Amino acid sequence: MAKDGEKKTCGQVMDEWKEFFWNPRTHEFLGRTASSWGLILLFYLVFYIFLAGMFTLTMYVMLLTLDDYHPTYQDRLATPGMMIQPKGKSLEIIYSIQDTESWDMYVQNLNSFLDPYNESLQVLSNKECPRDMYFTQEDSGEIRNNPKRSCRFNRTELKDCSGLEDRFYGYNVGRPCVLIKLNRVIGMCPGKDNASPYVSCAVKSDVVGEDEWKENTDLIRKLDYYPTDATFNLMYFPYYGKKAQVNYSQPLVAVKFQNITFNADVNIECKINGNSFANPTSERDKFAGRVSFKLRINSKE
How far apart (Å, rounded) are the C-alpha atoms in residues 180 and 254? Predict the structure, then answer.
């Protein structure tokens, strides 16, 4: 063996590693005897079994507090969000009237979206409900009233924007339809004093100025709403969740731009109005109770 301070040869280093890996004199493997390895492995086995048991017990206790049909804890905005169809790219609907391919994707999107609203399907799966009143379906104590029924929403209520009277939804003539839906919120009752919330659309206020919020005749001129009162009727509320109300059909409001300015970027904002909602123009959340999108229709005429 080399003395202290002397440089070890390659063979000496290899012999030391071999002895560390297996020492035949002390019967040690990697510096530990068989009993030492057994004790340390037993310790880690018991330790990880304990951790797994604690995790399993914690998950079990947590799952006992959950309800398959209704969230135990629900934190939501005072005003739900909104969305449009067709969504387009980054909430932009841009096309040219003369270029069929530029607007055909929007037509196909609306066709697919409205297929579940066909009257034949609605009659089979949903109920004809009395209007202007909540369709409440309470449970009987611990007995679940599931699955819960849903009210019909036939696409015929959208009239010119149903795709039945005009299969191009007005896109081929520069009078496009945009569908608006309110995000689903379990248990929400959005009306007050038997009044349904309604939708209104206009040029976005922070683009054209606050004084022109309600109407900008130079850009949008005329809008038609379907249903004509532009409401999400009370009979579609409250919503009980996807699992409890499997056939739920979200109510829709269609907006038809009858005389919009061509070859110009028009920034539209649609908002929900109702006494039970917080002010949708609040800057606290720019997407609560409203949706903004850009509409541009190009025409060579």
Answer: 6
Render 251-287 in DSSP notation, one character per residue: -EEEEEESSPPSSS-EEEEEEEE-TTS--TT-TT-TT
Highest mean pLDDT out of 75-79, 213-217, 248-252: 248-252
Q: Given strand 252-257, what is the order of strands in its sheet?
A: 82-85, 177-182, 252-257, 223-226
Tell whether omega for the bond before 71 is within 30 degrees of 0, i.e. cis.
Answer: no
Instruction: Classify the phi-psi angles of 88: left when phi > 0, otherwise alpha if psi is within -120 to 50, otherwise beta.
Output: left
CA dist., res. 105 & res. 85, Å (int)? 12
Strand partners, 22: 29
Q: What angle do CA 238, 191, 126 make, to 5 degrees?
A: 35
Characterise 58 by phi-psi region: left (phi > 0), alpha (psi -120 to 50), beta (else): alpha
For residue 223, what are the CA distances in angstroms to 156, 173, 215, 269?
Answer: 19, 15, 10, 13
Strands 223-226 vs 290-298: parallel, antiparallel or unpaired: unpaired
CA gap 127, 10 in Å, rounded: 87
Q: Which has more confidence, 218 or 83?
A: 83
By the 8 A CB rule, do 106 and 86 touch?
A: yes
pLDDT tens digits along 138-162: 887 777 777 889 999 999 999 999 9
Tens of pLDDT, residues 23-43: 777 767 776 777 788 888 899
Lowest mean pLDDT among 69-78, 106-115, 158-167: 69-78
Return the closest-CA partner of residue 291 out of 156, 183, 208, 161.
Answer: 183
Q: Express each pLDDT in 232-251 by its tens digit.
A: 999 999 999 888 898 999 99
